[in-house]
Amino acid sequence: MIATTQRLCIVLEATNRTLQETFVAASSLPLDVVRRRHQSAPPAAIAHWLPGHDVSYTIVASGLSLQDAPAFIRGYGQTAARFGWKVVTDDWQ
Known about the structure:
Blueprint: E1 8-16, E2 21-27, H1 31-40, E3 55-65, H2 69-79, E4 86-90
């Protein structure tokens, strides 16, 4: 039997209530680290989010393999859509 090691990740949802946008992405980092990185240097997809915006972060899945995360993000992004809200997805953070 060949043992393999898989890197696991979380899928996070960042909700910007000011702009009515949701950002869904995967990361191997803890949620607090991702939040701090986004506050200091947000990814291009949400670079227009400003420090004064009402933003919250939530883990929506954990323990996913890196290979499974993109499919989960696509599916979750479709179900997370709220009427009038924009959903932005990114496979990796």
